[in-house]
Amino acid sequence: MTGTDRVGSVVRDLYTSYPRPILWLIPGGTVRSAGSAAAVEVEPFYLSKTPVTNEQFEAFDPGFERSAEAPGDRDPAIGLSWEDAAEYCAWWAEVTRKPIRMPTEAEWEHACRGGDDRPVPWDDPAGADEHLWDRESSGGRLGPLEAKRANGFGLYGMLGGVWEWTAGGALRGGSWRTPRAEISAGARREAPRDVPVADAGLRIAKSLR
Length: 209
Fold this sequence. Notes:
Blueprint: H1 9-13, E1 23-26, E2 29-31, E3 40-42, E4 45-48, H2 54-60, H3 82-96, E5 100-101, H4 105-113, H5 135-138, E6 163-165, E7 170-172, E8 188-190, E9 200-201, E10 205-207
Parallel strand pairs: 6-9
Antiparallel strand pairs: 1-4, 2-3, 4-10, 5-10, 6-7, 7-8
C-alpha cells in the first residue's frame, strides 16, 4: 500500500476533511482475556465506535477493493491482513499526530464486554438477534452494524459483524459467518499476519495518556 508515503504537512493540516473513525472513551477495568493466563488491568483508553469503514480505509488506500459482502461507504473495510491494519494505524497516526494503534487483546475484550461479566450480553440465544450479525441472523451478508444494539460502552458490532485484528496478531469477536454458538467475548482465532482474511477488519485505539 502507498498510504504512508502520501503523508505530508498539507495532508496533516487538513486531516479533519478525511472520513475518520469516531473514538469512544472506554473506562478502565480488569479483564481475564482469552489471550492471557491471568487477569489484566486495563487503563482507560479510546476505541473506535465501529470498525474502520470502506470510505475511511480508502482515504489511506484509494485502490482498496471493497468486498461484495460489505460494499457500502459505511460498511466495515474487510479482507484485511494484520499488516494492512497496522499500516492504516501508522498512516492515521502520522496524519493526526496522535498515537493511533490497534487495541491489545485485553483492551479489546474489556471493551467488548462493555461492563458485563457475561461472555455474551444475552441470556437466550434467540435474543442475540438484537445484538449482532452472525451466521444465523445475517442471511450470508453483513448487515449495518449500527442497526443492532450498542454494548454497555456504546460500541457497535464487537461481537459478530467482522473479526477484528488486535495488536498482538490475533483476531477477536467472530463475524457474520460465525455460528452463534461460537461467538463470545472470548472468541479468538489466529491467522498469518501477511495474509488477508475475507471477514476481518479493524478498530483503532489510542491511549488516554
